[in-house]
Write a structure and sequence with these properties.
This protein is an alpha/beta fold. The protein has a single domain (7-236), classed as Rossmann fold (3-Layer(aba) Sandwich), CATH 3.40.50.720. Helix content is 42%, strand content 17%. The protein is built from 8 helices and 7 strands, in the order βαβαβαβαβαβαααβ. It has helices at 16-27, 39-49, 63-76, 100-119, 147-167, 186-189, 196-202, 211-222, and strands spanning 7-11, 31-36, 54-57, 80-85, 125-134, 173-179, 233-236. The protein has a 7-stranded parallel sheet with strand order 3-2-1-4-5-6-7, with helices on both faces. The mean pLDDT is 94.
Length: 243
């Protein structure tokens, strides 16, 4: 019950790692509010989390809507003890085929939106609060057709360091999670289902990770078990970037 009486807000909590984390936070006593842009998956996620879970339908890339989201969070929760910014999209595009629109879409959802989602949450955070950002092992290695995704996720890794430095004096910790091959709906939505078997073969553990395995890492970073850790990147990838 590490999160008893804690108010937990999860951007991108309606599927994958975000949903798995929401369920685990609730199991450990947290009051959970999830945010997602798909009303159908949001409704289904709330049913899985529990009857007291809260939800807001919003798009993290819609900066004009962020104030509305946090006004509602202030009314419903009063404060934020854990902020998990997990919203994101994927997709592989060769460099020569990249368009400004595709580049901007990736940056808006995966980097710009998360930054301002943290910035606008600050009035609701207090000493002892924790922020966790979702990066990716995509920023570790140069992979073809991965330029815009890798750049955005590298930016998230950098934000964990720089925001962490700015907030450390206020007693707010900031860390990030870099998942590797985790079996989430993003795989299908990003058109990368064909990579399932090749990635399994090159992974030292010879399998894809379960979202719950990544969620456990999120809860560790968010909890007092990680009270002396900030600006850190926790890699959950089955050993892909270690060997």
């Amino acid at each position: 019950m590490r999160f008893k009486d804690k108010q937990v807000v999860i951007w991108g909590g309606n599927s994958g790692i975000g949903l798995a984390s929401a369920i685990e936070f609730r199991k450990e006593g947290g009051r959970v509010l999830i945010i997602g842009r798909n009303p159908d998956t949001l409704k289904a996620a709330l049913q899985k989390i529990g009857p007291d879970a809260l939800g807001i339908c919003a798009d993290i890339s819609d900066l004009a809507g962020l104030d509305r989201v946090y006004e509602q969070i202030k009314r419903d929760l009063g404060r934020i003890d854990v902020l998990f910014v997990n919203s994101g999209i994927g997709g592989a595009i060769p460099m020569r085929q990249m368009t400004v629109a595709k580049w901007d879409e990736m940056m808006n959802v995966n980097l710009r939106g998360p930054f301002f989602a943290v910035q606008k949450a600050l009035p609701l955070l207090r000493r002892g609060s924790s922020i966790v950002l979702t990066s990716s092992i995509g920023h570790f290695r140069g992979l073809p057709d991965n330029t815009h995704y890798a750049a955005a996720k590298a930016g998230i890794r950098s934000l964990a360091r720089t925001i962490g430095v700015e907030l450390v004096g206020e007693g707010i910790r900031v860390n990030c999670l870099s998942p590797g091959p985790i079996d989430t709906p993003l795989l299908g939505r990003s058109g990368m289902e064909a990579l399932r078997e090749p990635v399994r073969e090159i992974n030292p553990m010879k399998r894809w990770g379960d979202p719950v395995e990544a969620a456990r890492a999120v809860l560790f970073l968010a909890s007092d078990d990680a009270s002396f850790i900030t600006g850190f990147d926790l890699v959950v990838d089955g050993g892909m970037c270690s060997f």
